[in-house]
Amino acid sequence: MTHDAGTTWREMLSETTAMLGSEREARFLCEHAAGLDATDFNLAQNETVTQRMGLHVHEMARRRLAGEPLQYVMGRWAFRRLDLLVDSRVLIPRPETELVAEIALSYAQRVSPTRVIVDLGTGSGAIGLSLADELPERGTSVWLTDDSQDALHVARANVAAIGRRGANARIVQGSWYAALPESLRGSVDVIVSNPPYIADGDPDVEDIVTRYEPHQALFAGVDGLSSLRIIVDGAREWLRPGGVLVCEIGHRQGSTVSELCDRAGLTQVEVRRDLTGRDRVVVARA
Ligand SMILES: C[S@@+](CC[C@H](N)C(=O)[O-])C[C@H]1O[C@@H](n2cnc3c(N)ncnc32)[C@H](O)[C@@H]1O
Predict the structure, then answer these.
(1) Residue among 71, 63, 44 nearest 12 (CA)
(2) I need a surface site. Which of 17, 69, 80, 207 has the fewest CB within 10 A?
(3) What is the pLDDT of residues 157-212, one digit of tens each?
(4) Residues 228/255, Cβ–Cβ less than 8 Å
(5) What count of other Cβ atoms lies within 10 Å of the Cβ of residue 241?
(6) Residue 147: helix, strand or coil by DSSP?
(7) DSSP state letter for 201
(8) pLDDT tens per residue across span 250-264
(9) Nearest to 269, CA basis, from 253, 84, 196
(10) pLDDT per residue as tens digits for the range 222-242
(11) What's the mean pLDDT when you consider all of the chain?
């Protein structure tokens, strides 16, 4: 790929598309380098690409061609209303997790005048920060936890990036409930989590996922349930009576996780499906 003085964004897009074999990905990289959204980028097609921007596109395209996920190459990804910093320290937020945040939000919105939300295993902060961003500023506390200090560095950067809207977010490190202060025991309104739920060595996981994303964010023992067991078992103790647990699950885990919820003394257990019709979220009440 060359960069001649006078190259327009139209030419840069077409070269990058040829290089990557994907116009969608080429657009993401060009829009990112240009610092423009899709609409403004379309309007800028005849504008000249500066040398610095051209080099940036080349470097990102090189990394992408070497196999790195597009989201890590760009260093950011959209989740609901947020534009999150993401890199190899955190899981790339997935579209199906937006549904998990949506369900947690719908329960949290019914709690008034104050609401306490916990996002266990927050990674980039995708779920918890969406709740901090979308719930009323007044009366909301959102606790973001993770065992990985690396992940929490990214979450902290994302809290800072959303400015005032992140003022209700508190970040704490530790394994699942051990991260939380004792004062929250029995008083949480909504516990939300997208924990690791893939079985160790699952052959169906794509190579790009196992090569680049943190294994601590993906794998959960021989049956993929080791994290979900801990989260479900502790939920009744940390939720207030009537509080809600909302957990993302693997598409074959609906009935097993429902049973775990029943056995943990949770009630009104439901499995919700994602847009592809597959089991995706378990909701249960204390
Ligand atoms: C599937 S990722 C989800 C990240 C983010 N919530 C999202 O939805 O994009 C699971 C997260 O759980 C964290 N995690 C793994 N084991 C943990 C533990 N024992 N305690 C707390 N967090 C843990 C990982 O570091 C990772 O950030």
Answers:
(1) 44
(2) 207
(3) 999 999 988 999 999 999 999 999 999 999 999 999 999 999 999 999 999 999 99
(4) no
(5) 8
(6) coil
(7) T
(8) 999 999 999 999 999
(9) 253
(10) 999 999 999 999 999 999 999
(11) 96
Q: Which two tokens stand for residue 65?
A: 């061609």
**Is the minimum distance from the CB of 175 to ligand 1 under 6 angstroms?**
yes
Q: Which domains are seen in the chain, by residue range?
A: 9-66 (no CATH), 76-285 (3.40.50.150)
Query: What is the spatial distance between Cα 40 and Cα 35, in angstroms, rounded to a whole number?
Result: 9
Task: Please tell me whether residue 75 adopts helix, strand or coil conformation.
Answer: coil
- Is pLDDT at 1 greater than 60 in this prediction? no
Q: Establish whether residue 122 lines the binding site of ligand 1, counting it when its CB lies within 6 angstroms of any ligand atom.
A: yes
Per-residue burial over 205-226, b if 16 or more Cβ lie within 10 Å, else e, is eeeeeeeebbebbbbbeeebbb
Contact 174, 197 (CB under 8 A): no
Q: Is 132 helix (H, G, I), strand (E, B) or coil?
A: helix
Instruction: Provide the token pair at 27.
Output: 């657009």
What type of residue is 222?
V
Query: Pick from 158, 165, 233, 159: which is nearest to 195 by CA?
Result: 233
Rounded-to-integer distance, Cα 117 and Cα 190, Å: 5
For residue 154, count CB atoms less than 10 angstroms from its CB and return exposed for 0-12, middle for 13-18, buried for 19 or more.
buried
CB 89 within 8 A of CB 154: yes
Question: Atom 17, ligand 1: which residue's CA is nearest?
Answer: 147
- Alpha helices for the chain (secondary structure H): 9-20, 23-34, 38-43, 51-65, 70-74, 95-109, 126-134, 149-161, 207-212, 226-238, 254-263
Pick the residue whose CA is nearest to atom 7 on ligand 1. 93
